[in-house]
Amino acid sequence: MTGSETMLSRAEAYLAYRRSLGFKLRIPGRMITSFARYADNRGHDGALSSDLALDWAKAEAKFADPFTWARRLEVLRPFATFLAAEDSETTFPASNPFGRTKRRLAPHIFTVEEITAIIAEAHHIRRVQAAGTLMMPALIGLLASTGMRISEALGLRIQDLDLEAAQILVREAKYGRQRLVALHPTAIAALEIFFERRNAIFPSRPADPVFMSELSGKEMNYMHAWCAWFRITQRLSIRPRGGHPFVRIHDLRHSFICRRLILWQQSGTEIDAAMMMLSTYVGHANLLDTYWYIESVPELMAIAGHRFQGIAGFGGDFDD
Predict the structure, then answer these.
(1) Does residue 214 contact residue 134 with C-beta atoms inside 8 Å?
(2) How many CB atoms sit inside 10 A of residue 262's CB?
């Protein structure tokens, strides 16, 4: 690295290059920028080194576990490869000394009663919240009834919803994909009521966001939704039943998928034949991501048990 270059300038050049190829790099971008500032603030004016990368991985996450450190380190690996192409003195750990970087904790699967209570409580959240009594019940209801990702819902525009055709066009899906999401009649009825109330307060054009800050009138962001969600779930004292320390907005998506699989099991639907349809509906890039629920969610272990029971040729139900 030349004397005129900072680590931050190299990071910005790298991120600009990757984004020119179509990568969004929202979270990785913030982390790489954080690393670059860390290096510059320490007065580091040389090539990226293994010691520097390891120090940063732990420095700003001292109270995290080795899994978090491992994830932070791996974010830097492509950046290190980019720098090594121009600076032969660049070094980076060949393997991750902090251990594995991928894990999937069991999600909290909401009961119907819990979701009903959450939506009801959302109607009473304080008006000072950016995501208040108008936006939050509709957002939660949409996530619970479609299994959409929170990022997908917040990225919706008025023109993306076709209530007459009972479908939503998801433009901001993961990996830059698009897909159509069918709507149940009850979801359509709820959305019609929502838009009637919304349009009375926020007259809108087709390109305007569906969900807006009730304070500024601008597009609602994730922090708006999370703050309201945290307040709602804390007031209801919902205890997490999965592997996470608290219930998350994303657990609404997990709950939708699990409820569908349970309903199929109860109705005798051939699970394997239906998996592809469900995977496409929720926007999974890999079918294995859908099968993961059967193997990892306690509420769905019975499905695997019944499948084994049928393959093994046993009759009747298990007693345990």
Answers:
(1) yes
(2) 16
Reduced to 3 DSSP states, what percent helix, strand and coil does the chain have, rounded to the nearest 5? 55, 5, 40
CA distance 36 to 48: 10
Distance of alpha carbon 279 from alpha carbon 290, whole angstroms: 6
- As to burial, measured by CB atoms within 10 angstroms (0-12 exposed, 13-18 middle, 19+ buried), residue 58 is middle
pLDDT category of residue 99 using cuts at 50, 70 and 90 = confident
Residues 6+ apart with CB under 8 A from 186: 145
User: Is residue 48 left, alpha or beta, with left meaning phi > 0 and alpha meaning psi from -120 to 50?
Assistant: beta
Q: Can you list the alpha helix ranges (DSSP code H) found in 21-131?
A: 26-41, 50-59, 66-84, 112-122
C-alpha distance from residue 204 to each of 136, 172, 211, 281 (Å): 18, 20, 11, 28
Q: Does pTM surpass 0.90?
A: no
Instruction: Check whether 314 has a pLDDT greater than 50.
Output: no
Strand partners, 157: 209
Indicate whether 188 pLDDT > 60. yes
- Reported residue count of the chain is 320
In the structure, how many helices (H) and strands (E) does the chain have?
Answer: 13, 3
CATH T-level fold of 112-236: hpI Integrase; Chain A (1.10.443)
- Rounded Cα–Cα distance for residues 282 and 149 (Å): 8
Q: CB neighbours of 239 closer than 8 A, spacing ≥ 6? A: none
Per-residue pLDDT of 214-259, as tens digits, reads: 988 889 999 999 999 999 999 999 999 988 888 999 999 999 999 9
- Split at pLDDT 50, 70, 90, the class of 287 is confident
Tell me if residue 90 falls in helix, strand or coil.
coil
Q: Write down the domain spans for the chain.
A: 7-84, 112-236, 251-312
